[in-house]
Amino acid sequence: MNRADHIKEVINRFQSSFYFYDLDQFEVHIKNIKGTLHPDIKVWYATKANPLTEVLRILNKNGFGADVASLGELKQARTAGYGPKDLIATGPAKSKSYLAGLMQAEVQAIVIESINQLKDLNEIAGKLGRTQEILLRVQLEWDDDLKSVLGGSSITPFGLGTEDWKEIDLKNYKNLKVQGLHCFQWGNILDIEQLEKVWDHTILECQKLSLEMGFPLEVLDLGGGLGLSYKDDRELNFSEVQDLLIKLKTKYELDKIWLELGRFSIGKFGSYFTRIVDIKTVRGKNIVVTEGGINHMARPALVGESFPCEAFMLEDSELTSYAVHGPLCTALDTLGEFELPMSLKVGDWLEFKRTGAYGFSESMPYFLCHDLVGEAIVYQNELMVPRMPKTNLEWMV
Ligand SMILES: Cc1ncc(COP(=O)(O)O)c(C=O)c1O
Description:
Blueprint: H1 3-14, E1 18-22, H2 23-35, E2 41-46, H3 53-61, E3 65-68, H4 71-79, E4 87-89, H5 96-104, E5 109-112, H6 115-128, E6 132-137, H7 162-166, E7 176-182, H8 192-213, E8 219-221, H9 238-252, E9 256-261, H10 263-266, E10 270-282, E11 285-290, H11 299-303, E12 309-311, E13 319-325, E14 334-341, E15 349-353, E16 374-379, E17 382-387, H12 392-395
Parallel strand pairs: 1-16, 2-3, 2-9, 3-4, 4-5, 5-6, 6-7, 7-8, 8-9, 11-13
Antiparallel strand pairs: 1-10, 10-11, 10-15, 12-15, 13-14, 16-17
Helix pairs in contact: 5-6, 8-9
This protein binds pyridoxal-5'-phosphate.
């Protein structure tokens, strides 16, 4: 069966909105990244992008580590087969019990984002009689006054500033071993020159900080940020990214570089499908209302950027402009303005592409008590349904 046949089968079975992932193409992409990787560059998968078990399994099988940001993500990665040495933990909210859970799971490194995390982890490690490897997360100042989902130049809860870190004395944390630093403030970068600018500044500042704090920078974790375009055909080429990393590694005599990839790994290989429940023209504007919207895929409302949209299996070559809205009673439920076939009608299906990352996992499913979205995958050319859609009766209490 080809892709369209698989999708038609899911439509027939679900009769409700769903995500569809092509995990065969995903695996080819992952193997391409991994196959050419320099031994001093390690790739971790940012589980938050898409925590589906089969996605994690494929990444694990192909040598990606996993970066988790909650106990739920930790459990999910363990279920998918991840061993402790292939796990790291990032995130600003690490309670004592979560830190204890991470130590119990024996994750390879914990990224420390506050003094409280440092104190709590040191105490937990002491009680267990173990030494835990950590990275300190740094938040740098930037000349550019730009915004980014990761904060950009704004002050955020992700890590601490260089001056804040310098105030601590690492000798007071004898149960922790600082492996290096973590710094990630700019998301979805599509331009290799921009990556170079960001990474060059990051490496320079991190190197200065490690020298001043008196530990060797064995690892520098540059986080994610490799982009995926939602507007045009621009693509980052991973071998160019790797050449850039090797150039910077040589320039600064770095030891190990880590990346945590989210969007760049899985984003391209997922689509969200929903059907049209109404079409109307309001004060001269064509409006389509869909069965699912930001309840299944909140990113357009959160960052103001649409996923690309096409009508599924409609041949009409005459296009016109439509504003597409989801079902929620808020103007926030706007999925974008798109050129779609003139012949579009109620019951037709729309496909939102490149929703493999920050689609399902970044949604607001409960507002207005609609059905919960399903998920289907094709892997080794076989259609599988890890998650059936749930009708509202199945989850409301
Ligand atoms: C700590 C951390 N690492 C990695 C990522 C993945 O970023 P991206 O999807 O840009 O690769 C995120 C995303 O928010 C993150 O918070």
